[in-house]
Write a structure and sequence with these properties.
By secondary structure, this protein is of the alpha+beta class. It has three domains: 118 residues, Beta-Lactamase, CATH 3.30.450; 209 residues, 2-Layer Sandwich (Beta-Lactamase), CATH 3.30.450; 153 residues, Heat Shock Protein 90. It contains 18 helices and 18 strands. The protein has a six-stranded antiparallel β-sheet, sandwiched between helices. A five-stranded antiparallel β-sheet has the order 2-1-5-4-3, sandwiched between helices. Helix 12 packs antiparallel against helix 13, helix 13 runs parallel beside helix 17 and helix 15 runs antiparallel to helix 17. The longest helix has 84 residues. It is rod-shaped and about 170 Å long.
Length: 590
Amino acid sequence: MEYVRTPSTEIDVTFLKSHFDNSPLGFFMINRCGVIEYFNASAAAIIGFGRADEACGAPVQDIESVINCDLSDCFNAILNGQTFQKKEHRCTNRLGHFAILNVFGSPYRMPTGEIAGVLGIVQDVTDISKRKADLEEAILELSILSQVSEALSSTADLDEVLKIILTGVTANQGLGFNRAFLFLANESGEYAEGQLAVGPRNPDEAGQIWSRLDSQKKTLKELLDDYSERENSSNYTLSSFIAGWRVSLTDDSFFSRAARERCGINIHGKDDLSSTSRDIMTRLNSENLAVVPIVGKGKILGIIAADNRITGKRIISSEVELLQIFANHTAVAIERSRLYDNLLEHTEELEEMNKQLAESQEQIIRVEKMSVIGELTSSIAHELRNPLTVIGGFANLMLSSGGNDSNTEYLNIIISETKRAETVLHHVLDFSKASRTKTQEIDFNRLVVQTSGLLASKTRNRHRTPFMRLASEKLAVWGNPDQLQHALLQFLLAALDEMTDECLMELSTGIHEGMIKFTIGFNGTEESRAKVLKTMKQVFGNSTGTQKLSIIVAGETLRYHGGNYGLESSEEGLPRIYIELPQYKGGQDA
């Protein structure tokens, strides 16, 4: 459509020049016929004209063909009073330079109110857009690092720490690598061993996983919190692929270079690599690999490697730099996790030491009690022994003098009870002597053998020698050897008192549920076993007498040493006495 210029629609170019020639924004004026009547220097530079007057007289289509911003399509609408804007439009100007432009168009009205044309403004925002994109990228990176740091601070478990790091590396909301591999260095830093890997095995699996994750619309924080999303079969397979694989950190590979130079490396292709590096690339089935060291306090802790094996997207240097930041976070988290593990280990050691100290203190108290009891009983026994000797002596003298026969029975009772009282005092004195011996480590098997020999001398071989079945390993207890021998002897004497020649005593030692167990069994005719069992029930029951007192003293000795005693039946139903004492593990470790 052609327009006829009338005085009322003529554009005052002089007015435009006076106002817009020196403006940093690009201004241009198009008349109603679509012909450019004014172009300032800034607009010429942006569009790519050498001079502003080169554009004057050209149709609007000439500008549109260069920047392709749809201004010509909206030209008639602007003439009818509408406005036009296109922000951050990406294009190439007449000189072939890439630019990002803001383009605005509005009706140019005359004083009479009539629209004489279109006033256009063009602004080059390439640098602003680039800085904005850089700022947005930096904000995104900080957001990723912040979320990863928050997730890392929520756990001290090393496995969880490593999963969080590799999730941040491979999640689309994170760095977005397809696959990530983590190797931890040994203490000397000579090699790094494969620990964990995250990523799909092939494109089909990648499509399934990524489609599912896209449909769930999870944020990075939600992915970091949701470990089950990462613990799928593909991750396990990829981890098993590198598990136990040791890569040297002292040879000519890029792993060694990254560890040596303490910086990330971007590997492209295999042609210029050493044979060792090519082997690594081949095993990982990768063509482009980002490798960064994990360094904590100047010490190499491991290596992170990542690639885009599925998509084939080329890794750029900025991604390697960000991956290095992830590795730095990993170093801090690994060190914190190891410190936490060491703290737990030391705490357990301290708890064990405190427990042993408490047991030692308790044992010292027991020993002191036993010593006091020994002194007290010794003093009482000596005080009672003299009167008993006098009573017994006079009773014997009266009996031998042939006095009144009617008193003979009473004199015999006095002599018998005096002997019984002396026997009790004898047990008490034996115990008091034993209380003066210091505590020490005791070979329990040897103690049983010695006590069995002592039993034979006290009974003058009136019974068959006990059959012994001793444990093959060393059994150590801690305590007073004389006290424990005295206690064992009292149990043996009590058992032997009612035994006949048809009954054989069987002694055995062993370990049961962390305690050293000593059993006194009996084998023989049913009648002989029944007689022994009856006696044992009387001794361990509520009856009183010399034997009962001996067992009470012996039992207290065992309890002071942390042990116990009682009656039980063997698997064959035979009666037997059992004695338990705590095993002294320090003796076995020595």
